[in-house]
Predict the structure.
Amino acid sequence: MALLLAVLMFPAHAQQISDAKVEALVEALRLSAPKPGPNGGLYSDWQVKPDNITRWSKRCLNQEVTPEQFAADQALARQILACVMGKVLREQVAAGNNEIVAVQRSAAWWMTGDPEQYNSGSTSAYTLRVLEAYLRFF
């Protein structure tokens, strides 16, 4: 585990973010998602807002996916989320963050839209849950 953490702590410019790491982040977000409330208006195991589903599917697939399609097809949802979160994670690494901080900042972006919130208040607890889930894959 210490070796893994040492590798993840290397400066970002020395790292490449593989598709496997993006997939691990997407799964970590799913595992860390809050339990759905009744009539919460969010879709799939990832608890995604409908307007995000429409916007992201247009950007990533060049076609609109309905929230119902997204919720019903986990492979489709993963494809869209890997497209979106791969870009976010790679941006965080490219900005000079080590992989651990990049994962936390990506989780904060996912939760709040603001990666700067990764170590603030309740967002901090969430980003640590995502990081813990992410690290289980490596």
In short: The two ends are 9 Å apart (CA to CA). Residues 2-9+18-135 form one domain. The chain is about 65% helix and 0% strand. The chain has one domain: 2-9+18-135.
